Amino acid sequence: MAVPELDAQETEQLLADHPDWSLGREGKAITRTFQFGDFSEAWGFMSRVALLAEAQDHHPEWFNVYAKVEVTLTTHDAGESGGLSARDAKLAASIDALA
Amino acid sequence: MAVPELDAQETEQLLADHPDWSLGREGKAITRTFQFGDFSEAWGFMSRVALLAEAQDHHPEWFNVYAKVEVTLTTHDAGESGGLSARDAKLAASIDALA
C-alpha cells in the first residue's frame, strides 16, 4: 500500500521544523549526523532510536563508525519509488527529542 | 601507535579462515553482509556485536537498513594509513561465531 508522499510545501515545513536534518537523494530522504564522545555513547543513542523505530514501525537507514552515527530517513512505500512521508517527520521529531 | 598491518600471506589466511568475508577498499578492509528476518533480529545481532566490539576495544563500521546489516572491519591505526590487522581477524572470528 503506497504511503502519501510529502509535497514540496510539506517537505519545506519538515526541514523548517527540523533544521538539523538535510535533504538528500534528490529530495527522497533526510539525513542527520550525530557525533558522540565514544562508541558507548553512540550505541546508547542508537539503542534508544531502535526502540523508537520498532514502536513506530518505521526504521532508519544508518551508518555507525565508533562515535559517529549517520541517520537517513526515507519511506520505501511512499509515492512511486520511495520518498519522504509523515512517518519520517514523526521519527525525525522523536530522534531530535533524544539528542 | 601503529598496529602491524597483515602482510599478503596473512591476509590470504584471514580470507581462507573466514570465507564469508570479502576484501574491500583495495585490501584495506573486509566486509560481510548479514540478512535477518526483520529489524528485531538484526538489532539483536548488532547488540551482540556491540558488546564484542567494546570488549575487544575494536569497533566495526556498519550500515543497517531494516533486516540487513553490512559490517566492515578495518584498523585505522594499522600501517601508514589504515589496513587490516590481527584485531580484524579476531573480531571477524567472534562475529562468525555468533552468526
UniProtKB/TrEMBL annotation, chains A, B:
Pfam families: Pterin_4a (PF01329). It catalyses: (4aS,6R)-4a-hydroxy-L-erythro-5,6,7,8-tetrahydrobiopterin = (6R)-L-erythro-6,7-dihydrobiopterin + H2O. PANTHER family: PTERIN-4-ALPHA-CARBINOLAMINE DEHYDRATASE (PTHR12599). Belongs to the pterin-4-alpha-carbinolamine dehydratase family. GO terms for molecular function: 4-alpha-hydroxytetrahydrobiopterin dehydratase activity. It comes from Erythrobacter dokdonensis DSW-74. NCBIfam families: PRK00823.1-3. Its EC number is 4.2.1.96. The keyword Repeat does not apply. The keyword Lyase applies. CDD domains: PCD_DCoH_subfamily_b. Keywords: Lyase. Gene3D superfamilies: Transcriptional coactivator/pterin dehydratase. This is Putative pterin-4-alpha-carbinolamine dehydratase. The lineage of its organism: Bacteria, Pseudomonadati, Pseudomonadota, Alphaproteobacteria, Sphingomonadales. GO terms for biological process: tetrahydrobiopterin biosynthetic process. InterPro entries: PCD_sf, Pterin_deHydtase.
